[in-house]
Write a structure and sequence with these properties.
about 170 residues, three-stranded antiparallel sheet, 2 helices, 9 strands
Length: about 170
């Protein structure tokens, strides 16, 4: 009977390891490909009663290479920073960890505990990416960096940063 229990346990461990293997923690310029499909990962957050993890003391997110009011050319390279909180892959809730979302002309932040939207103005970086390239039209654009937990629930305004940039023609 012990062998019968071992086989399913080994399969589960193997599945978890394969899902997490190859997760690139380094900077990538591609947006999380999961968000462009009909993957149900957003529904997970709506079925949990678990609270959003506490924000570590001194945690903040910021744009490393862009400043409020800066004039830039398209495509725009965006480098995302996080201090006192770990950038990690999406999938499970781990206190002190989460991942970036980028809101483009979509407001200042997503309320704490609310799942960050999934569309062309709400980009997800659930593979732990810390940079991207954005093709933006000429004119003013508001960019909001929003940090969220492993199942895309926003940490709210305390872990967001909003800037306005001007894309020149």
């Amino acid at each position: 009977m012990n062998k019968l229990l071992f086989i399913p346990a080994a399969l589960v461990i193997g599945l978890v390891a394969s899902c997490n293997s190859g997760a690139d923690q380094s900077s990538e310029s591609k947006v999380d490909t999961l968000v462009t499909t009909d993957a149900p990962h957003h529904d997970m957050a709506m079925t949990t009663n678990e609270p959003v993890p506490d924000i570590p003391e001194g945690a903040k997110v910021y744009f490393k290479n862009l400043k409020n009011g800066q004039t830039v050319s398209s495509p725009v390279k965006v480098v995302m920073g996080a201090d006192n909180i770990t950038v990690d892959t999406a999938g499970i809730i781990v206190p002190g960890k989460g991942h970036h979302h980028l809101l483009i002309d979509a407001g200042d932040s997503t309320a704490a505990g609310v799942v960050v939207g999934k569309d062309s103005t709400h980009l997800h970086f659930g593979k732990g990416q810390t940079e991207t390239i954005l093709p933006l039209t000429p004119g003013k654009h508001v960019l909001t960096l929003q940090f969220a937990d492993g199942i895309h629930r926003s940490y709210g305004g305390r872990l967001s940063n909003t800037i306005e940039i001007n894309v020149k023609k």
